[in-house]
Amino acid sequence: MDIVDLRTFVEVADAGGVSPAARRLGISKSMVSRRLVRLEHELGVQLLARTTRGAGLTEAGATFREYAAKTCTEIEIARETISPEGDLCGRLRLAVPLTSGPLHFASVLADMALHHPQLHIHAEYTDRFVDLVGEGFDCAIRVGALRDSNVVAERVGEISFRLVASPGYIQHHGSPETPGEITGHHALLGTEAWRFLEGGRIVTVQPQGRFSSNNGAALAKAAAAGLGIAWLPDCVTHTYLASGALVPIMTRFPLPVGDVHLVRPSSPHPPRKVRILADFLAASFERLHGQSAAEIALSPPATDPVAG
Q1: What angle do CA 149, 103, 88 make, to 5 degrees?
Q2: Is there a smaller number of Cβ atoms within 10 Å at the N or the C end of the chain?
Q3: What is the pLDDT of residues 124-165, one digit of tens each?
Q4: Which long-range contacts (CB under 8 A, 24 or more apart) does 168-175 make?
Q5: For residue 47, how many C-alpha atoms fall within 13 Å in the half-sphere facing its CB?
Q6: Which residues does the chain have with pLDDT short of 70?
Q7: Residue of 181, 172, 226, 236 whose CA lies nearest to 203
Q8: Cα separation of 305 and 247, whole Å?
Q9: In a domain, 264, yes or no
């Protein structure tokens, strides 16, 4: 029995059809169909009931899926065990935040690919909350509070945030000096409320504004255009701050950091490729933290740019 056919069947079963499974695997639908037919012929049973809306598991298919998935996992672990140290192969499919992913995590994935030339990395950049098991992801990088208790999470670092605005906006509208003044300003809205540290406690503000986006890069561009103030991660605002297109405001009220976790489906045996990705991510945040500390030591204290 071909392990590739088994993996293909598991993908079809989890994806709910041949077409979505083919997209996950990066192969043609006809190739997926041939593998399924070959597996069913070898087993002598029908695993999938094919309809115009997709493919559903037969009773035999539902039973076989559990054994097939377990077999694929155990073979993957066995291959990793006997492979030369440091050598990874196969596929790593992960979900990466769209807001901070291209700027912060893309270089980490590229570095991992360079170190492991036999590994195929499929990264999907999205800010939606993906179903790891149902959509066939090996893992996901998530920033902020975790909402899914059915996953295993490993903290790999943290991301800092700033409240920013353009010099032009500050000249015309001034700058808020306390969290309570934010509601009197034009805010560029993301997907979360804004939180600040004040006197050892967290203060939550529900900003108001007419421009919203679930993408940090879009909010940064809107802020630089003078449309309002934005609450954004440092990795998004770095180049804008360096050029002077944006400036930090309300620096007396620091923003809580966002914990970064690598999450994976619950399993007693995490894939080695996921464990190694966690190491790459943790190392990247250690380097970033060291650079930030050096920059802080060389920089003068920040002041709030308030209109006179």
Answers
A1: 65
A2: C
A3: 988 888 888 777 788 999 987 777 677 889 999 998 889 999
A4: 168/226, 169/223, 169/226, 169/227, 169/228, 169/229, 170/247, 170/249, 170/305, 170/306, 170/307, 171/307, 172/226, 173/307, 174/306, 174/307, 175/229, 175/249, 175/250, 175/304, 175/305, 175/306, 175/307
A5: 30
A6: 51-54, 80-81, 83-86, 148, 191, 268-269, 289-308
A7: 181
A8: 8
A9: yes
Q: Which pLDDT score is estimated for 85?
A: 63
Residues with Cβ within 8 Å of 297's Cβ and at least 6 positions away in sequence, in order, are none
The predicted-structure confidence for 199-236, as pLDDT tens digits, reads as follows 778 889 889 899 998 788 899 999 999 999 999 988 88
Same domain flag for 166 and 243: yes
How far apart (Å, rounded) are the C-alpha atoms in residues 84 and 116? 12
Going 171 to 177 to 183 to 188, the CA torsion angle's sign is: positive
CA 90 from centroid of its chain's CA atoms: 21
Do the domain assignments include residue 300? no
Amino acid identity of residue 23, one-letter, is R
**Encoded tokens for 167:** 């010099």
User: Which residue in this structure is represented by tokens 């912060």?
Assistant: 104
| 2 in Cβ contact with 75 (< 8 Å) | no
Helical packing angle, 106-115 and 272-298, nearest 10°: 130
175 and 236 inside one domain: yes
The answer to whether 127 and 99 are in contact (CB under 8 A) is yes
Query: Do the Cβ atoms of 140 and 95 come closer than 8 Å?
Result: yes
CATH number at residue 267: 3.40.190.10
Answer whether 183's CB lies under 8 Å from 203's CB. no
